[in-house]
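Q: How would the structure tokens look for this protein?
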Amino acid sequence: MLIPAYSDYRRTLKMGHILIFCLSLLAALVHYVLGLDNRLAQSRLQLSMLSMQLDSQFAPIVNYGQMMQNVARLKWQLAQDSAAQTEATLPILRLAKQDLVSQPLADSELTAMQRAELAMLQQLAPYFELAANSQPFVTGLYYVSEQGFAFHGQAKWSDYVAESLARWTESSKEKTYDRHQTFYANFLPEQSALSQPLFIDERKVGRFILAVQLDPMLAALQKIQTDTQFMLLDQTGELVASSHSRHTLQLDKHLLQVQRLNSAPWSLAVLERKQTLLTSGASRFIAVWLSYWVLLLVMLLLWQMRHRQKVLSPLHRLTLHVERLAEAKTGVRHIPRGWESLFTKINELTKRESEG
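A: Here is the predicted structure in token form.
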């Protein structure tokens, strides 16, 4: 005899498998989205920490420029009294002609201000060599005078550097009233610059130029996260420096995060491949989905075993018992536990019917 409970049990079992599949997939998807959000939050936190590290590398350079300004003002005051009495000469580069000359400090054709400026540079000569030795990312310190000459503390100039400096000076003239430090993305080849203006008695006399290599700065960050590209961007979004080769990137395949620096008017940009970010959680998504699916499947199997043991099996014996009684045979011997009262009532009903 066909029992409706069996067909309903099979339908329920199929629906249970479908429900388990959907629930495990939904749980894994929620887990994946939350993990992705945590990964992005962690990336933002790491970007903030990396920008702080980059600021700590820029800060000594900025402070050195300010220190040069303060020391230069002090040396200027001391040089005004001794400039006319010394017989020393100073090797300077005349930018217009790009020729190196040894300028006597006591030259009668010089004004008092010009002699004081040359004497100041003579006293500052050790600071030019100290800049490159004390600052790991500084390649040189230059002084560019408003009088059209340059000084870098050495007796000789490289022709290439002299030509590049003259060309850069001509293209990057600053306003005479600007007292703030200025960063330049392009200075000498593969170098950027920090310009520190020098004012004496409210008059701009020159500027100190700190040549900075930015690529080694970013290379230090690259060692921390090898699968990420770091870049420095200016206020307009133009590329200043990069930890990789400066080729055109497909931004639609990368995740771009930008953090403004405090010590420089630039921003640190981090490029991470979207595929890396997404696929890093794909394996976790599959693992979580399988874990939920197996767990729910085990629960379903346990329910299936218990339902068969406690409901379907006794119901089958009850059906067999009724069929035997209907054929005037002896009922089943082994009655399932908990079903005794139902079997007893059926026996009584069958007995009354036979007696009637």
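The helical segments are 4-82, 112-134, 159-171, 215-222, 274-326, 340-355.

The CA atoms of residues 67 and 264 lie 17 Å apart.

Upvote if useful.
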